[in-house]
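Key idea: predict the complex, not the pieces.
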Amino acid sequence: MEQHTNSGPEIIYDKAGNPHEVVDYNDDYTGAKLGFWFFLFTELLLFGGMFLVFSFYFYRFPENFVEASSTLNIVLGGTNTFILLVSTYFMGMSLINLKNGEISKARLKIIITILLSIAFLTVKYFEWMAEIHHGIYPDSDILNAKESGIILYFGLYFTMTGLHGVHIIIGIALMIWILILMSGKKVTPTNYVVLENVALYWDLVHLVWVFLFPLFYIIGLGK
Amino acid sequence: MEHTETLTESVFIKVFFVLLALTILTFLQPYFMSAELAGTVGIQMFIAVIKTFIIGAYYMHLKYESAVFKFVVATAVITLAIFFIILSFDAIYRNDVNDFFS
Amino acid sequence: MTRKTFYDETHTVFGHHENKLFQWIFSIDHKRIAFLYMIVMFAFFVVALGVALSMRLELFFPGEQLLTPDQFNQAFTLHGVIMVFLFIIPGIPAIFGNFLLPLLIGAKDVSFPRLNLFSWWLFLAGAIIAIVSLFVGDGFADTGWTFYAPYSVNTNTNVLMALTAAYILGMASILTGLNFVVTIHRLRAPGMDFFKMPLFVWGLYSTAWIQVLATPVVGITLILVIIEKTIGIGIFDPSKGGDPILYEHLFWIYSHPAVYLMILPAFGVVSEIVPTFCRRTIFGYRAIAISSAMISIIGYLVWGHHLFSSGMSEWAKVVFSFLTFFVSIPTGIKFFDWIATMYKGSIVMATPMLWVVGTIVTFAIGGLTGVVLATLGITIHLHDTYYVVAHFHYAMLGGVIFMMFAAMHYWFPKFFGKMYNETKAKFAFWTIFIGFNLLWFPMFIAGALGMPRRYFDYLPEFTIYHQISGVGAFVIIFGMLYMGYNLYKAISNGEPCGRNPWNATTLEWQIDSPPLLENFVNTPYIDFEPYDYKDGKPVHDLYDEIHKGR
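Result:
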């Protein structure tokens, strides 16, 4: 990248002599955040599309969905819900720490978030293994022998929690990248938009789970 | 240009406890409210939407952002809502007899 | 004094290069990126034209000529995939949006130049995957560019590769849209509020919103088909309770807004050309600006009109038919305003204006036949016939691509600093216009008489229509090649022309042709509306202010 000799922002004047600052695309905090929000929408629409499919089939096969939901492990699912909620707390706090200049506290909180995310994935792994050991996985003979609604429920279960899990993995990679940037002083208490955007990403990942969890786990609770 | 810091540590912690309480509520709801499926789904989605507003406003900082951000978020959410609403016309009435124009 | 233009120097993403090729393919200058898109897109356009010609030749007589039935299915799929995903959706925004957006708003580049280059590389990757799928395994997909389930799940042709390619191309589109929206929000020159932006920028803005909001839905749809093909989750498989119509809903939730993505920049081009060649302010600036946003919004509500005969509920059909009628209104407003601008203007019938007038004719036909198809009683008869094929080619070719040709002729002097041969350009227009109507108009009639689309063979009574179309195909392709040749020659041999040969008013004409690397030496302050003419001449000339101190 070319080096810019930063002589400050460009100022131009209107006919009345008032100064106006020209936004520099190389140094645009608001633009960086706005751009990332637009990216978050694409994620919202991506998962939104999946929820459209889920709602469609839930409407069609409500009893099957409830029955299948009751076979899921609420303890594991619930644990993951709390893990994720706590992780967004740490992620958000790390940004507040960084803005206050407390760099090592910020770093610690990001590391905690990474560990919590790994815990989430581990719990998910055990959940999946439990289903697979019962012969419940897409296109398995046992699953194909069940009613349509149950087949679709588990198809959606693996797809949606799988897609969500991929986003958690990407989140972990992003957090590691942030730690590297912080060591290299590229992310600092005055230049933190990258961390802010990663925190926003993490909040979106949490939001998806906020809807995913009740629809997959709670509908079959107590039945 | 940095705006003055408006999201403080104490607000952040308070929001966390509100979210925690709401999450616990979602677990308890099916037990102390024996609602039918539609009721359960309705309440759960309602709680999820409230959580979304809280997370969006505070954790995702929207409350403190300029109008452009709020407009952009609202547009995306409304678009998704429109897809749900229009698709529901087909989902709900698919198996009805097509005798509108007979 | 020869100033260095963007051809002479550039910024690259990986640091300095000696190699000229690297200076182009790693350049983060929006103007060079426009060229990169142009080269790849036109190459694929020619391929898709070749595929189309092979289909027209096959259909010249009943029976099998040069394509087997399976190859015919692959041919219309390939033609559709290339034309839709590789040419017309990137289309005007990728070439003219990239080059002109910063110039039109007084900016030095887009908000995220490196992301812009990354979009192009994604585009290239998707294109390569699509082409590779032609040559491996069972060959290119044979499902139609719409990839309807359950056939797309069950067929053995390279659907997985085509879907992967389409997904990657979708990502490129999303990132470009994101870039443009943020650029328009953040980098407008001081003083230029939203209602002082040129109308092409309004078109790009509305388009960019659609790119960001609609594309992810087709992204997830394609992913679901990929997952369905690989692990069989069952969501589009009727034997497992899945619903193929749901696939169609999800696919068209994107693909209908996609056609607005195609036409809105084209409408923007018309709004740029008309005031220039009528030498007066455009009629109804605000109405045209807001109608772009309205088309973008209402366009999200009408997707079901692609599903009328698939088995949706009656209620859904009524809702979609009603909403589809509605979406024609903002377009009508634009047409009215353009014609009102031309009325009693002093019209200069240069090539760009000729293309605009041609489009007003052909797109009007395309749009009106769309309204016919939106009528529930008629659509049952016309769905999946040549009537539909003629409708969307009148709209896409006669609307979007004609305007791409108009844009090529209008902004050619800005890109190259030279002018093309006007007589040859006009001859090319007439050849293309006549060939176009010969090719597509008979299809309205054939379709109404019952000729189905995507059919490899037909009953003898349809032969005459196919043969007229076949002749039209040759005429239009000859015209396009002639037009391309004329422009290509002008790049090296054209008459040098000044920075504003059309006496236009917008900002891109107030800087050099070709532009400098950083576009504007000094950013101008904008306190006036675009298209400000007085007595047929532009009111504002900011050239000196922009280049002060250089």
